[in-house]
Amino acid sequence: xxxxxxxxxxxxxxxxxxxxxxxxxxxxxxxxxxxxxxxxxxxxxxxxxxxxxxxxxxxxxxxxxxxxxxxxxxxxxxxxxxxxxxxxxxxxxxxxxxxxxxxxxxxxxxxxxxxxxxxxxxxxxxxxxxxxxxxxxxxxxxxxxxxxxxxxxxxxxxxxxxxxxxxxxxxxxxxxxxxxxxxxxxxxxxxxxxxxxxxxxxxxxxxxxxxxxxxxxxxxxxxxxxxxxxxxxxxxxxxxxxxxxxxxxxxxxxxxxxxxxxxxxxxxxxxxxxxxxxxxxxxxxxxxxxxxxxxxxxxxxxxxxxxxxxxxxxxxxxxxxxxxxxxxxxxxxxxxxxxxxxxxxxxxxxxxxxxxxxxxxxxxxxxxxxxxxxxxxxxxxxxxxxxxxxxxxxxxxxxxxxxxxxxxxxxxxxxxxxxxxxxxxxxxxxxxxxxxxxxxxxxxxxxxxxxxxxxxxxxxxxxxxxxxx
Length: 469
Ligand code: AMP
Ligand code: ZN
Description:
Layout: E1 6-9, E2 14-17, E3 25-30, H1 41-59, E4 63-70, H2 86-94, H3 98-115, E5 123-126, H4 131-143, E6 147-150, E7 153-156, H5 172-176, E8 193-198, E9 216-218, H6 220-232, E10 236-242, H7 246-261, E11 267-273, E12 276-278, E13 281-282, H8 293-298, H9 303-311, E14 319-321, H10 323-341, H11 351-366, H12 371-383, H13 389-403, H14 421-435, H15 439-451, E15 454-459, E16 462-467
Parallel strand pairs: 3-4, 3-10, 4-5, 10-11, 12-14
Antiparallel strand pairs: 1-2, 6-7, 7-8, 8-9, 12-13, 15-16
The structure holds adenosine monophosphate and zinc ion.
Zinc ion (ZN) binds near residues 31, 249 and 253.
């Protein structure tokens, strides 16, 4: 454990040994969800990743302050300040209050996180509850001459910040010739972004506030700069988010913060997780190719089987989700839990041999959170009959502090196979339909059974089914 934690920093583009700014204390900010609808399992990957990061920091004996925001205003349908506010749009469509929608989906997201074994953040902060901090930061930017006002709102002029292109290595010249500038009338540079948007004349928004510039609402990016400063100080250690945040959201956060606070680097380490793909494309709400966690549970999978699925890929690699991969992860998880829980407490083993295994596990964790390697090592320990059972149990208990799979305590639902002539016949018919490539019929039968609370799992030995708990 002594060689330290090494993390890949998107800012410097290399793995670096992590050193907190304040001795013994790691300060981490993660961009959170926009709560206008349910989070799909792709959206949950950033939080699983951040959970592994926080656990790794804690395994180093560090105190961690983990701040996560909830975007409940200002995130437009286009990240570049065009389009409509996602929260307002959801409110209009459903006839509900934006506030109620935000509360519902925040709660659902927190519940999903907990089901997946993610510790609650130390600070959970909402954009709508930090309007004054955002206004103050915009005022600081205005005082520095970094802003300008147009009909649509108050904007940040990116040419006032010489390092603007650095994080994402943007080609601003090329952007200058691009089309984004036309989307908001009066913008000076394509990359300029809104700090404060004015409420449209004659349109009454549910969420709008007074400000020194007029009634309106904050741009999306300013909330993260303002709230991280409030809870973590003017400079902090690690900022996380999805890779899609590199060229716009995180680039803008850095510009605002470094100009307003007069610091550099504002954040030492930037960490980004890759996407989950489904059917060859990024899983996303706009493409509609999404699953939410509840869908997986309804299909008979365990929530922690999805965590196990996530652990099978490194966070910086794209991961492909499909039914087969999920079913395989579910089987892998159940097998590992059954193996762990089948171990007795007999035998301590050779301390040196155990130390070697322990060191291999933690060096995988501390090598930029190498979850696939750590998970494989846990699997080896569970199966290694050369080690006494008590020693294996001790090691797995220790490893689980990072893996978060509840290996020794999870209660697995009843074994997968049951028998019922009618259901057996339907499952057989579905299998025949699949073999005849009649997927419509096969899906129809799966849906019919799902409606009765029955899940089918396709295994190399043929389909198995069971009733959900
Ligand atoms: P959104 O609610 O769309 O702002 O997304 C919330 C977070 O989920 C962001 O950090 C995105 O980068 C991330 N995200 C969105 N789609 C995926 C995906 N398919 N796989 C992994 N992360 C994603
Ligand atoms: Zn953010």
